C-alpha cells in the first residue's frame, strides 16, 4: 500500500518554505537596489549595504570591511562617515541629522535633554539591532572624561526616526545605511570605531564667535583632537588626565583621569598648526570685538537720530501751536495764512434745510 499522508504534508511544508524564501529573496533584492526593510522585519539589522554604496566605497579605494570614523556636527546638523583607504581616511558620505535635542554644549546630567559632545569608542556591543527607533548604536556616554566630571546620563543613541531626547535621530533610511556600515566594519575585523561629536566645525573663526560661551575651554580641549584628525587623516588615540582630554599620549596603559598628564607623541606639523590656530583665534576674537563695537556704535547713532527726529517734531509742533495762540485762539486757517502769505479759503456755506 502506498501512504499518501506524509507526502502531502511534505509538499505543503515545502511550498511554505519556498514562499518564505521567495519573500526573503525579494526583500533582500529590494535592499540591494536601494530600498530597506520595514521596522516590522526581524532581519533589518542584517540587510546588506545597497550595491550603490558598495560601488562608491570601491571607487574611493575602500571597502565595507575597512575601518571607519564617524563625526557629528551639531550646528551644521550633519553626520560624516569616513573610511580608511591606502592614503589615509577619506570622507565617504555626509548624512543630515533629522533631530537632536538641547543646545550647543556637552551633556552634563541625566534629564537635561542635551546631546553629548566629545570623543567616544564604539564597539559591537553598543549596536542595538532591535531598537524602537528602527536601528541604533549607543554613543558610549558617559565616557571616561564624562565620568571624571560626574556627568550622568544613559542610552544616548544615534538612531532612526526624527525625534530626540538627548540622542541624534537620523531617520530610518539614514540609520539603516549607517548601521550597515558599522556592522560591516566590525565584520572586517575592526574591534571598534571612533565617534567624534562637536558643537560645530572647530575653526578659529567659529570658536571666536563663541568666545564668551561657558563651554569655550571644553571646546578648545577637544579641538586638539579635531586638528589632529584634520592634519593626519587618522583618528587620534585619546585618554583623560588632569580632567582633560589628551591625544596620542606617550607610553602605554590607561591614565588616571585626574592624575598628571604624560608627554604626547609629536606629530609632524602639529605644533605649527596649533600655533597658527591660536593666532587665528586671537585675530578672529579681535575681529568679532571690532564688529560688535561697530554694531553698538551704529545702534547708538540710530537711537540718537531717532531722538533728534522726535525732538525736531516736537519743536515744529510747538512752534505752530505758538503761532496759533498769537493769531486769535490758534485757528489752523489763521496759521496757514501767516505761514503762506495767502488768505485762507472761504469755507462753503451750509445749505439751509
TrEMBL record:
Bilayer-crossing regions: 20-37
GO BP field: cell wall organization; peptidoglycan biosynthetic process; regulation of cell shape
Record domain L,D-TPase catalytic: where: 68-198
Keyword Membrane in record: yes
Keyword annotations of the record: Cell shape, Cell wall biogenesis/degradation, Membrane, Peptidoglycan synthesis, Transferase, Transmembrane, Transmembrane helix
Coiled coil location: none
Pathway linked to the protein: Cell wall biogenesis; peptidoglycan biosynthesis
Keyword Signal: no
GO molecular function terms attached to this record: carboxypeptidase activity; transferase activity
InterPro entries from the UniProt entry: LD_TPept_cat_dom, Transpep_catalytic_dom
Active-site residues annotated for this sequence: 159 (proton donor/acceptor), 167 (nucleophile)
PROSITE patterns documented for this protein: LD_TPASE, PROKAR_LIPOPROTEIN
Record-linked PANTHER family: L,D-TRANSPEPTIDASE YAFK-RELATED (PTHR36699:SF1), LD-TRANSPEPTIDASE (PTHR36699)
Family: Belongs to the YkuD family.
Protein name: Murein L,D-transpeptidase YafK
Naturally occurring in which organism (per UniProt): Devosia psychrophila
Amino acid at each position: 500500500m502506498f501512504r499518501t499522508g506524509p507526502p502531502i504534508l511534505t509538499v505543503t511544508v515545502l511550498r511554505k518554505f519556498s514562499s518564505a524564501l521567495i519573500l526573503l529573496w525579494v526583500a533582500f533584492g529590494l535592499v540591494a537596489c536601494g530600498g530597506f526593510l520595514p521596522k516590522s522585519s526581524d532581519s533589518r539589522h542584517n540587510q546588506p549595504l545597497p550595491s550603490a554604496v558598495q560601488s562608491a566605497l570601491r571607487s574611493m579605494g575602500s571597502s565595507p570591511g575597512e575601518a571607519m570614523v564617524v563625526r557629528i556636527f551639531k550646528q551644521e546638523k550633519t553626520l560624516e562617515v569616513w573610511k580608511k583607504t591606502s592614503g589615509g581616511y577619506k570622507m565617504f558620505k555626509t548624512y543630515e541629522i533629522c533631530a537632536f535635542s538641547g543646545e550647543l554644549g556637552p551633556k552634563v546630567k541625566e534629564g537635561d535633554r542635551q546631546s553629548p559632545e566629545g570623543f567616544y569608542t564604539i564597539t559591537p556591543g553598543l549596536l542595538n539591532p532591535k531598537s524602537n527607533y528602527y536601528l541604533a548604536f549607543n554613543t558610549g556616554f558617559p565616557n571616561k572624561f564624562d565620568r571624571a566630571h560626574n556627568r550622568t546620563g544613559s542610552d544616548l543613541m544615534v538612531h532612526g526616526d526624527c525625534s530626540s531626547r538627548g540622542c541624534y535621530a537620523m531617520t530610518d533610511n539614514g540609520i539603516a545605511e549607517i548601521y550597515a556600515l558599522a556592522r560591516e566594519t566590525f565584520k572586517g575585523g575592526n574591534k571598534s570605531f571612533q565617534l567624534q561629536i562637536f558643537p560645530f566645525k572647530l575653526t578659529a573663526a567659529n570658536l571666536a564667535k563663541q568666545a564668551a560661551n561657558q563651554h569655550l575651554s571644553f571646546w578648545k580641549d577637544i579641538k586638539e583632537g579635531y586638528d589632529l584628525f584634520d592634519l593626519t587623516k587618522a583618528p587620534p588615540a585619546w585618554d583623560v588626565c588632569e580632567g582633560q582630554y589628551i591625544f596620542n599620549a606617550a607610553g602605554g596603559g590607561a591614565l588616571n583621569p585626574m592624575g598628571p598628564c604624560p608627554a604626547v607623541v609629536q606629530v609632524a606639523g602639529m605644533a605649527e598648526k596649533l600655533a597658527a590656530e591660536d593666532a587665528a583665534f586671537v585675530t578672529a576674537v579681535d575681529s568679532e570685538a571690532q564688529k560688535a563695537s561697530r554694531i553698538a556704535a551704529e545702534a547708538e547713532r540710530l537711537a540718537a537720530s531717532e531722538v533728534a527726529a522726535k525732538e525736531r517734531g516736537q519743536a515744529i509742533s510747538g512752534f505752530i501751536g505758538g503761532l496759533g495762540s498769537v493769531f486769535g485762539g490758534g485757528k489752523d486757517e489763521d496759521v496757514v495764512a501767516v505761514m503762506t502769505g495767502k488768505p485762507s479759503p472761504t469755507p462753503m456755506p451750509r445749505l439751509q434745510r
